[in-house]
Amino acid sequence: MANTKSAAKAARQNLRRRLRNRAIKSATRTYLKKARLAIEAGDREAAQEAVRRAVRALDKAAEKGIIHKNNAARKKSRLMRRLQQILAA
Q1: CB 32 within 8 A of CB 60
Q2: What architecture does CATH give domain 5-88?
Q3: Would you kindly state where each structural domain of the chain is located, as residue ranges?
Q4: How confident is the model at residue 31, as a pLDDT?
Q5: Does residue 89 register a pLDDT over 90?
Q6: First to last CA, the chain
Q7: Residue 2: what pLDDT?
Q8: At what angle are helices 5-41 and 69-88 packed, to 10 degrees?
């Protein structure tokens, strides 16, 4: 339990931030999974749209500091590489 007013406020802020970060992280993982499944299904149109949404979610999460920018870049790179493989085939 917080001993000072400032510590109590920091605890409230941490709770709000944790809940927001968890929601954004979860949504980002969902977009990534949908993109991966669309790529594996081989549907080019759906895969492109799903990858576009996943990249957008990753960029937003990295911008807000929820995930590291290099983490977002790595995930985008791998996703785009998979997408290019089905588009080339």
Answers
A1: no
A2: Up-down Bundle (1.20)
A3: 5-88
A4: 98
A5: no
A6: 59
A7: 85
A8: 10
